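User: My instructor asked us to take a sequence, write out its structure as tokens, and then describe one feature of it. I'm not sure where to start. Here is the sequence I was given:
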Amino acid sequence: MNLEWKMRVLHWSMKMTGQGQFYKSTPQKLRAQEKMGQGAIADYIFGKALPLARVEDIMMNGRSQPIRLRVYRPTLQEKRPLLLYFHGGGWVIGNLDTHDRVCRNLAHHSGRVVVSVDYRLAPEHKYPAAIEDACDALVWVAQNGETLGADVSDIAVAGDSAGGNITAVLCQKARDEKGPKISKQVLIYPAVDLTRTYPSTIRYADAPILTRKDMDWFATQYLNEEEERYEPGCSPLLGSLEDLPPAYIITAQFDPLLDQGHAYAMALKQEGNKVIYKEYSRQVHAFFNIANASSKSQKAFQDVGLFLKGKII
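Assistant: Let's start with the prediction itself. The structure tokens for your sequence are:
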């Protein structure tokens, strides 16, 4: 793989310190590692957190339990459109802190109020818990624009990896269940089909950050039974793809999920939806997050920001 040199160093250091290879660990150990990965080390890998006008944590009531949200306001002077964000982590790991820098960057580049959702994680809360929390969060933000300082007549949604899966499912559910209108969707190397093996899954089975074995392990943690793979709530590529919000879909060249993202973009286009698809060369899964190890990360944030401002579609 022709990786950027910083990514090669990162991959080597992860192997030397026992990081990665999720399938060999447990959810509890992985979450503990996330807590240790803050501070100077995180700044070195992910870049320093951008200052914004205001960042605060609030609580909302979900159908099963309270849900924590983190609200990022790029300005306090006027209401801005809203972006609802769902973090990645294979439905098992990830939280508001692991994607804090991502959300700050998105607020900065898009000019939107960003609301990050701390949805329930598997295996303690299996499918469809994360989807239920996403649906509840969408309804809640649509009803609480004044509290958020947001213009909720324009609500976009976004997510990376498993968060991209949740985002794609949410768009279909909002359409089918006549929920709040979603203006745009941003899917960042999304998992959209848990039913089949794509060529990129084989070609990059042992890629840095995410491997084929990791993908299988995450799905096993998330699902109650194998048959759920064929439900559109788990594999949105198998759902009805008509009349969905304009989409910006990002993939990485050396990612096992590459072909899934591309297949979803092509399927959306075939059904008449507006789609921008971009594969970022020499990148791996999670490059969007690791700003200091990827020369393409900031470019991707800029591209997404332009899309969310309506300037490139």
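For the description part of your assignment, you could build on this observation: The domain at 5-308 is CATH 3.40.50.1820 (Rossmann fold). Try explaining in your own words what that tells you about the chain.
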